[in-house]
Structure formats: structure tokens, C-alpha cells
Amino acid sequence: MGAKAQAINAGQFGVDETLLRHFVPMNGLAEAHISQLVPFAGVSELHPGDNISTNFKTSDQAYYVVQGQLDLYSGSKLTGSVKGGTTEARFPLSHLQTHFDSTRARGAVRLLRVDRARVSALLILEEPSAGATTHRRTTRSPLDSRQIIARLLKSQIFSHIPPANVQRLLELAEPVPVHAGDVVIRQGETGNYCYILMEGRCSLTRRAPGEILPRTLGDLGPGDSFGEEVLGDNGARRTTVTMRSDGWLRRLSKAQFAQLAGKSSMDQISRYEADELVSRGARWLDVRLPEEHRNDGLAGSLNIPLAEVGGRSRELDRKVPYVLCCNTGQRSIAAAILLRQQGFSVCVLEDGLMAKDVRGDRGGSADDLKGQLVIADAEIRTAMQRKTQAEAMREAAARGSGMSDSQRVRMRAKAEAEAARADEALASAKRRKLELVAMVRTMDAKAADERQQADSVVEQLRQQTDVRLQAEKNRLQNDFLQAAGAMDDLKRAQSDAEEHFQKERDRLEAQITQARAAMSGEAERIRGEVESAKRAAAEKAERIRREQEIAEQQLRARTEARLLAERRKLEAEFNTSMSSVRKASQELSSAENAKREAQRKAKDVSAKLRAAEEKARRGSGSAAPARQEAQRRLEAAHRVQRDDAAGRAAPSNVVPFKGPGGEAAPFDPSNTMVALRTELHTFEDKVSEASEQIDTASRARAQAQRAQLLVEERLARQRALEEETRLTLYEEAESWLAEERDRDGSAASKEKDRKRAKAKAQESNRQAQASEDMMSDIKSQLSGDYDDEASSIEHSLRMREMEQESAAKASPPDPVRAKGSDERKKAKEALDRAREHVQRLKNRYDKD
Prior knowledge:
Number of strands: 18
Strand content: 5-15%
Number of helices: 20
Number of domains: 4
Oligomer: single chain
Radius of gyration: 73 Å
Shape: elongated
Structural class: alpha+beta
Distance between the termini: 130 Å
């Protein structure tokens, strides 16, 4: 059989160590401690459908599902369920991650109930390391302090001591030596101390009323306590305790007990303050078991179980403050005491992670109390079962068949103790139920009072409301009567207004009819006037058109005649310029030939002169040949002179050497040198004169070429101007015809036609004047600077083009004008060709 099944079977009629060890955190307790928890645990039986709306987090008991399935509800919504034997069921219902505010049993459910304070106290008493301790004492050796404290906590009276103060219990208790036969307490007497047996043994006896001899209830050993009743309200002793051997014990007074039962002085802070500290650098330290920490530990928190805090404190940083937390705050306080003794800065989360003191307020809402009543009934049933079992055990001990006297005594003592615990559990459960019933009655009475007060308030409000309603009704009736009178007045006013409106409407309709008739007659009259004006305008436009045609024909004839005369004049000038160019070219060619011949002869004369000078230096022996040579040279010079005079009519300064009688003089070397030098100078002068003639001819030719280019450009511009004039006249004629067709005959249209005709006449005159001005410019610029003339003509052409574009944009589109698109295109192309020709002439002129 598995451990889970054994635990469930163990919890069928009672609680034992096997059942407790299956749940968290009891699984972290030692064997000796978990056995001491059995009396403070129990099993509650829930019937199918039992609804428990109590808040498990505020209960002083921890509840676990042992068997069956418990559904969890948030309001009326099912949020989850816990089934006995699962991993989730090993943790208390208060530690479930699922949010719920009520539970309902699905079938029969067994709940394990464990006292939270006992669990915390026993966890505090655990050894520092679960596996490091060994039992150094034998069963006959006295118990150590931890075992003694654990056994003390089984007493109901010592459960009121906070776990953090349990460690001080033995320190405050006063040691007292005793001997065999000493009576420590006597039944019926009043005392001020309770006792804890540290060493030795004693007997426990009680004398019932009517009995002569007391009955022995049992023996007490180390770790047992007696006389706790004096710490309560009733200080009378209920038993007699006699020492059976020497030993010693500790006694604790009421004052010392009150000091231990008080709240610990350890610093405790709220959750908000703890979060503030953590945000400023402090750290969370969870002192619960690792399994608890894994289940619902805080994010980022350290986990060192309470039993390991002393040995693992070296893992903590002394410079960092720590906030200790556990389920209820008790283990945190114990751990804080240990850490503070080692110099750590610590504080404790008040009330632990439960966020509320488990020993605090047990009240709540009616639903919460009803849920606790259900659990109280289950506890009573469980206590009754335990009492029944104790009675059966006592009867078996009384019969004692087959048992020795010592066995019967031990069995009877055990039965008595179990019966006492069952009676105490039953009485506690009944008291708890009575308290809950009283609280429910108090709450019901309070609710009844509140309902009565509410009913009284409602009655008062109803009466006040009735009074207000009656007053409001009277006011509304008065308002209704006033409104009815006002409504009658409004109806009469409406009737009068409708009658007045009908009369006014009839009058306005009559006026509208008259106005329409008058407007119709006026429209007919205006239409007739418009037709008459239209006919008159058409006649006038026709007359203006004829006059315009005549004026345009005359202007075209004058312009063409003037252009023709100018063309002929320009052609004559061009021919004259061409003749001048040809003549200048011939003269330039002759001058260049004469210059080349003169240069050649000058070179020859210069060479001969150098040769003659050389021969003259050689002496007279060679005079005859020199004279002969000089004579030949003079004859050659005379021939050249004659040829130049006859062929080119060029002046010559060469003079032949002659004698007094006009004949050739005889050769003289000195005279020959002089003559040669003279002849050389003459040829040099002739060369200079020929060069000047060449320069003059070149300038004449360049001037003639420029004049020719200028004339050609003027002719090209003249042709472009003629094309442009014809294009303008054609466009104006089309525009005039379109405007004549668009006339509507109105007075405004007549004035517009008149202005347009006048503007056309002015435009024609302006164009004629522009043509005359252009011809004058051509004449004046033929003899002026070419660049200024070219810029002026080009500017004139651009102005004419811009005027034509403006006129084209201002004129509305007309189908008639579209018919002459081809002719305008041709004229435009001719104008572009003329401009290109002018540009080519200008480029040629700039290059020359």
C-alpha cells in the first residue's frame, strides 16, 4: 500500500504521525516533534454539498484535503478544485494559488485540521540541521531543552506563548531540587506556580468525591509539566504530585508566564513598508521550508529554512538589511532573534505572508460565520468519534482480561489521557460552536436592529415622500391649470396668427402676379431693344469691317511698296559693295606681288653690295672685274625700274649711274658702293609703300565684307518682318471675324466692339509705324555700328513675338480661327528660318 493510501486510511478515524508527515510543512518536523502535534490535529467530516464560505487565511487552523474533492468558488463561479492525494492537496487551503472565497464538498470530504501556532512552535524547535544531529542520549538519559519545550507545547496553556518567546521559557523558570517522597502540589490547594520536571520521576494521583483512597493516574517523567491550572482563572489544584525519586524541576510564576505570553519586541513592519525597504536595497529572506517557498515564495527572495539559519548565516551580506517572512510571522521572529545576535540588520513582516494575524479577529460576515459553523459541526463529530474510541479503550482496560496489573494501569492511564483529550477537544469544539452561535445570534440581532432601523428610516422616508408627493401633486395641478389657461391663450393667438398669415399670403401672391406680368412686358420691351441694338451693331460692325479691310489693304500696299523700295536700295548697295570688294581684292593681289618682287630685289642688291665691299677690300688688282660686275648690276637695276614704272606705275627712287653727258660713267668702286646703297634704300622704301598698300587693301576688303554681311542680314530681317506682318494681319482678320460672330447686340457689347475696332485700328497704325521705324533703323544702322543695330533688330523681333502671344492668349478660341492654323504654321516656320539666317550672318561677322 502506498504512502498516500496509508495516510488516507490513517485519517479515517483519527490522526497519527503518518498522516501528518504527508503534508507541508509538517513533513519538515522530526519524529519526536510530529508526534507531539497529534493531539492538536483532527479530521473533520464534511457531507456532500456542504458549503463553507469561511476565510481560511484568517483561521487559527490550517486545513488540508485528505480525501474527496473540494470545489473552490469565487462568487458563483467555479475557479478550481482540490482533490485529496494530489500534490496540490499537500499544502494548506490558505496557500492555494487559485483565488476563491467559498468552498463546496463534492461528495464526502475529509479535512485535516492542524493548529497553526503549534506547527510554528515545533518548527522553531527543530535542530539546526535535519541530518546533522545524532541522538547522543539513550532512552534512560534526561531529555534536552528542545525536547522538553516541545513536550510543554502540548499543553493548552503553553500554546499561548508566542513561538519567538518559547526559547526563553526555561531561562525564566526557577530551578528547584526535590527528593523522593516530597509532595510538590496537593489536590484542592491554591498555588502560584506551575512546574516542569527536568530530572527524576513522580506519581500523579486524584481522589474522587466519596472515595477514601486516591486513584493513581500515572507517572510523570522528564519533560512533563503539572500545575498549569494556576496560570488560568481557577488556581485550585486538581491532582496531587509526589516525587518517587530524587531530581530537580523548574517552576514558573504567573508574572513570568504573562511576560512570556506577551508580544515579542522584534521590529515588525507592514507589507507596504517592507516593499519600500526592498525598493531601497533590502532583500526578502523566506525562512519557511524549501517546498513552501517553491509553492508561493516571493519573487527574488532568498530561502533559508529556520532550522538552517544559524549554520547558513555566512551566506548573507552583513551590509544588506533583510526583511524576514513566513506564513504567520512566528518563524520569522525566531530567525530574526538569531540573526540579530550575529549582528545582522533584520526586521519581520508583520503577520507574515497571510497578511492578517491568524489569532486575530474571528468575526466576519454572516457567510463566514456559517462556514465556520459547518467546520465546528465537523469538529464536534470528529471529537465524538475520538471520545467513543477513548471510552472503548477504557472499557477494555477495565476488563483487563489477560493483562498484568502494570499493563492495565498503563492502558487505563492512556485511556484516561485520551478520554481527557477527547473531552477537551469536544468541549473546545462545543465552546467554539457556542461562540459562533452567539456571534451569529449577535450578528442576527444586530442585523435585525439594523433592519428595524432601516425600516423605520424607510417609513420616515415614505412619509416624507408622501408629503412631498402631495405637495408636488398640488403644485403640478396648479401648474397644469395655469398651463391650460396659457394653452387656450396660445390657441387663440395661433388662430389669429393663422388668419393674419392667410391674408398676408393672399396679398403677397397678388403682388407677385402683378410683378410677374410687369416683368414679362418689360422683358418683351428689353428683348425688342436688344434685337434692334443687335441689328444696328451688326450693321455698324459690317461698316467698320469694310473700313478696316480697306485700311488694311492700303496699309499692306504702302508697307509692301516701302519694303520693295528698301529691298531694291539694299540690293544696289549690296552690288556696289561687291564691286568694291572685288576691286580691293585685285589691288591687294597686285600690291602683294610688287612687295614680294621688291623684297627679292632688295635681297639681291644687298648681297651684291656685300660682295662689292669684299672685292673693294681686296685691292685694285681686281678692280676691272668689279667694275664690270657693278655695271651689270646697274643695268639690272635700270631694267627693274623700267619694268616697275611701266607695269604697275609704282614710284621708284633707283637712279642709274651716268656720266656728265648722260652716258654711263666709267666704273668707280667708291661710287658703285654709294649707288648700291642708294638703290637698296630705294627698294626698302618701295617695299614699305607696297606693305602700306596691302594693309589699305585688306582694310577695304574687310569693310566691304562687313557691309555685305550687314546687307544680307538686313535682307533676311526684312523678309522675316514681311512674314511676321502678313501673319499678324491674318490673325487680326481672323480675330475680328470671330468677334463679329460673337456679338450679342447689347449696349455693353456695342461699346466693347467699338473699343475693339478702335484698338485694332490703333494696332494697325502702330504696326505700320513700327514698320516705318524699323526701315528707318535699317537705313540709319547701315552706316552705324553693327552690334547695336543687330541688338535693336533682335529686340524688336522679340517684342513683336511677345505681342502676338499676348494677343493670342487674350483672344477667345473660335472654330474659324482654327481653319487658318496651317497658314499660321507656315508663316511661323518662315519667321524661324529668317531668324536662323540672321544668326548665321551674325556668327560669320563675329568670326571675321
